[in-house]
Design a protein that fits this description.
Helix content is 10%, strand content 37%. It contains 3 helices and 13 strands; from the N terminus they run E-E-E-E-E-E-E-E-E-E-E-E-E-H-H-H. A 6-stranded antiparallel β-sheet has the order 1-2-10-7-12-5, with no helix packed on it.
């Protein structure tokens, strides 16, 4: 696992074994993770080109860590540091997840997550540390100018009604919706 520039986010690029029959790789291996990850739920979404999901996050504790991979197609995957008090607060980092490199990303509790489908269709699987709990789930508008996420030019974003109505980062901060960095770090310490 290679750490990204935001504390609590890592990229996994598996060794893909290919031959004339096809290919094989280890998509997820708990022993390789830099921290404990209890698998509670697996989600799968299928998105048309331009579908933009996120920026999503959950209350900490317990939060919801995610291990995200693209099973078919290609997506621009984005991690956003929304932890109040973090040295990288408001910063985002993007990587491509696709069905060629088979890379995955591990995202700690308290970080925001979003992705945009780049291929005509993309299937994304999320391994989640906690089950979906509507009362603890939140979002930030993915096109918020304050975040200035560099979504690809020439791809028209398609948002759900919920994501289109999500607050800006500043609005979420003002209403106390965002997780605190110190609270997150204390929670992470229980996972080793």
């Amino acid at each position: 696992m290679d750490p990204l520039g935001i504390d609590g986010a890592w990229r996994h690029t598996p060794l893909v074994h290919a031959d004339p029959r096809g290919s094989f790789f280890e998509a997820y291996r708990a022993a390789d993770l830099p921290r404990r990850f209890e698998l509670a739920q697996v989600n799968c979404s299928v998105s048309a080109r331009g579908v933009l999901r996120g920026v999503h996050f959950a209350d900490v504790p317990p939060g919801q860590a995610k291990y995200v991979m693209c099973l078919s197609g290609s997506v621009m995957d984005v991690v956003v540091d929304i932890r109040v008090g973090s040295p990288t607060f408001g910063r985002w980092e993007a990587l491509t997840l696709d069905d060629e490199t088979r890379s995955a990303v591990l995202i700690a509790e308290g970080l925001g997550h979003a992705f945009m489908a780049l291929s005509e269709q993309a299937t994304v699987a999320y391994l989640c540390s906690e089950p979906y709990a509507p009362g603890r789930e939140h979002g930030i508008h993915p096109l918020d100018p304050a975040l200035s996420i560099g979504w690809p030019a020439g791809v028209e974003p398609v948002l759900s009604e919920k994501d289109a109505k999500a607050p800006s980062l500043d609005e979420a901060l003002a209403t106390g919706l965002l997780p605190g960095y110190q609270v997150c770090r204390e929670f992470y310490a229980t996972l080793h």
